[in-house]
Amino acid sequence: MFSKGQLIFAAIFAICFAVAMVWSYRKDINLHQFYYKKVWIVALGIIAAIAIFAWISFTLHD
Fold this sequence. Notes:
mainly alpha, 3 helices, flat
């Protein structure tokens, strides 16, 4: 399905991308701790909204 060259490129790209993401995150960790203190509340709200919509959808289709 994929050639050997494409698989090698994909592997190298994935590794380089992961390294760049980790390096970027580590560089900005102080900013993340300052600006995103309460981000878990937003994530909890999104999960709760999806759960409520799913619950309403399942109860209305019975």
